[in-house]
Amino acid sequence: MKCNASIVLYNTPLGLVNEAVHNLRACPEICEIYLIDNSPRGEIETMEGVKYIHNRRNLGYGRAHNIAIKHTLSSDVPLHLVLNADVHFTPQAITQCIKAMEDNPDYGQLMPKIYYPNGEVQHLCKLLPSPLDLFGRRFLSRKLIAKRLDRFEMRPTGYNKPMDVPYLSGCFMLLRCSALRKVGLFDEHYFLYPEDIDLTRRIHRYYRTMFFPDVEVIHDHRQESYHSWKMAWIHFVNMACYFNKWGWNMLTDKERKAFNKRAIEENFPADYQYK
């Protein structure tokens, strides 16, 4: 099964770009590789085996990826990989993920098991968030809401089995094109951060959105909004946009409650009590 891939750049170190492109090109299933550059000054003049698009301004994460995804949807390539440049992987890892999508036509999206460079698991399988989950996670001490955050990040599952998850990270999104044709692309109202929540939950309505721990990759996750007031403000504004769209409480977002309840019942230990 063939697949296209896209990486969005913004003043991205060239070494990361070269590594990612090299490993994608070594994967026989990958057809086209798109580098979508949001940097004010494009720093990649030529690179063999890629389609380079320089936007000359920062369009945002989802909107930039949509440029590449639209090219894929106009072709007969059935899969598209949305990838961060700071994800480290082998060509075999991509092949395994693509094979899982090929073997399971009900999979609309797939994310492998993701580690920090120090070997710790990144807890990137999440329930659909409430405002407390996201704003509390960002601004409150973890000790105050530790149990709630553990549930939100699905830590009781152990991250050791395939799971159908309503919110998967945007750092590695292997997407089925037929699902995108059904639900649409990234919502371009978001500049950064909640576009992965929004797209995963739309795909989750009709397909399985899978965590696939048989494949492992490494992600240099920097959490920029925790180190920059500018990025923190961008995070806050875009999350407010998300909740304006989907609802700020369970009365206006009943789908969130239903999806989360199902994810807990299917994946958490049998003695875990959903509240």
CATH topology of the domain at 3-128 and 162-223: Spore Coat Polysaccharide Biosynthesis Protein SpsA, Chain A
How much beta, percentage-wise?
Answer: 15-25%
Shape: globular
Main structural class: alpha/beta
Number of strands: 11
Biggest sheet architecture? 9 strands, mixed
What's the gyration radius in Å? Answer: 18 Å
Structure annotation, total helices? 9
Q: What is the CATH top level name of the domain at 3-128 and 162-223? A: Alpha Beta
Structure overview:
This protein is of the alpha/beta class and 275 residues long. It has a domain at 3-128 and 162-223: Alpha-Beta Complex (Spore Coat Polysaccharide Biosynthesis Protein SpsA, Chain A). Helix content is 37%, strand content 21%. The protein has 9 helices and 11 strands. The protein has helices at residues 14-25, 61-73, 91-103, 131-139, 146-152, 177-183, 195-204, 229-246, 254-267, and strands spanning 3-9, 30-37, 51-54, 79-83, 87-88, 107-115, 125-126, 163-164, 167-168, 172-176, 208-219. Strands 1, 2, 3, 4, 5, 6, 8, 10 and 11 form a 9-stranded mixed β-sheet that branches. It has a two-stranded antiparallel sheet with strand order 7-9. α1 (14-25) links the parallel β1 (3-9) and β2. It starts with a strand and ends in an 8-residue tail after the last helix. The model has no long low-confidence stretch (mean pLDDT 91).
